[in-house]
């Protein structure tokens, strides 16, 4: 089940990346923490693995040495992000600027609230 959730997190991250230019640190890492149950280190390493070439290569190598990269999850995240980025960028072109700005603000507040309240 966590692999399906990981793929969905990747899709959402890709979609929001296409719309807002965000993904790894704002969507993927918190999603892996909250929905998949990874540790902070695993979530960060796995997110970097999904963004492996060329963005996170050195980070992935470092986290790998600690055993903090979950490759099957990272691969499904990457596939979801590929499709989501295309869909999100198409959506962004059809939305008014104010809608994009308010959507981003709401998203960031919700993510921040979840991180503050999580033990």
- The total strand number stands at 0
The largest sheet is:
none
Helical residue percent band: over 70%
The secondary structure category is mainly alpha
The poorly predicted ranges are: none
What is the molecular shape? Answer: globular
Number of helices: 6
Pattern of helices and strands = HHHHHH
Beta-strand residue percentage: under 5%
- Domain count: 1
Taking all Cα atoms into account, the compactness measure Rg is 14 Å
Average per-residue pLDDT, rounded, comes to: 85
Terminal residue distance: 23 Å
Keywords, please?
119 residues, mainly alpha, globular
Description of the structure:
The chain has helices at about 1-20, 25-35, 40-50, 50-65, 70-95, 95-115. By secondary structure, it is mainly alpha-helical. It has one domain (about 1-115). Helices cover about 85% and strands about 0% of the residues. The chain has 6 helices and no strands.
Short description:
Helix content is 86%, strand content 0%. It is mainly α.
Question: Secondary structure elements and their pairing?
Answer:
Blueprint: H1 2-20, H2 24-36, H3 40-50, H4 52-65, H5 71-94, H6 97-117
Helix pairs in contact: 1-2, 1-5, 2-3, 3-4, 3-5
């Amino acid at each position: 089940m966590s692999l399906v959730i990981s793929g969905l997190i990747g899709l959402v991250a890709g979609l929001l990346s296409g719309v807002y230019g965000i993904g790894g640190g704002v969507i993927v890492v918190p999603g892996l923490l909250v929905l998949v149950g990874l540790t902070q280190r695993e979530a960060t390493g796995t997110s970097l693995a999904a963004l492996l070439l060329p963005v996170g290569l050195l980070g992935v190598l470092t986290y790998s040495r600690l055993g903090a990269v979950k490759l099957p999850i990272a691969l499904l995240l990457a596939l979801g992000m590929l499709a989501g980025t295309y869909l999100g960028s198409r959506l962004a072109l059809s939305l008014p600027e104010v809608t994009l700005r308010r959507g981003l603000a709401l998203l960031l507040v919700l993510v921040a609230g979840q991180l503050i309240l999580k033990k």
